[in-house]
Specification:
Elements (H helix, E strand, L loop, with lengths): L2 H7 L2 E7 L5 E6 L2 E3 L2 E7 L3 H8 L2 E7 L10 E7 L2 H30 L4 E8 L2
Antiparallel strand pairs: 1-2, 1-5, 3-4, 4-7, 5-6, 6-7
Pfam families: PNPOx_N (PF01243)
Keywords: Oxidoreductase
InterPro entries: F420H2_bilvrd_red/Heme_oxyg (IPR052019), PPOX_F420-dep_Rv2061_put (IPR019965), Pyridox_Oxase_N (IPR011576), Split_barrel_FMN-bd (IPR012349)
Length: about 130
């Protein structure tokens, strides 16, 4: 089983982005496999989106809902997705997370609109 397979099988992964001064900012997120990458979904104006825009350097690790890691962090590179690819990621999340995923995505769309969230693709070194 590859690193990507193991991370994609987790319910939550700890996505860590880095500030300009190098400080790590870890965030637990839902993740799903998207071809040769891991995909996550987040609020479009979040700090992690700004940090990824500046530098795609990230690490990802398996974690629980509170962000406590239970496996090693692996380096990766994150990139933001266009609206069409973000829709694809939402569909993948609905498949993986079933009812709670559908409800969360619906609530987010009602609250923020279609453009209020963005997909993030993370490629990891195997």
């Amino acid at each position: 089983m590859t690193t990507l397979d193991r991370l994609a099988a987790e319910k939550y992964v700890l996505l860590t982005t880095f500030r300009k001064d190098g400080r790590a900012v870890p965030t637990p997120v839902w993740a799903v496999r998207d071809g040769d990458a891991l995909a996550v979904w987040t609020v479009a104006d979040s700090g992690k989106v700004k940090r990824i825009r500046r530098s795609g350097e990230v690490t990802v690790a398996p974690c629980d809902v509170r962000g406590r890691p239970h496996g090693p962090a692996v380096p990766g590179h994150a990139s933001l997705c266009d609206p069409a690819h973000t829709r694809r990621i939402r569909d993948l999340l609905k498949q993986k997370y079933r009812l709670i995923g559908r409800l969360s995505l619906l609530a987010s769309r009602l609250r923020r609109g279609e453009g209020g969230t963005v997909g993030i693709r993370v490629t990891v070194a195997d």
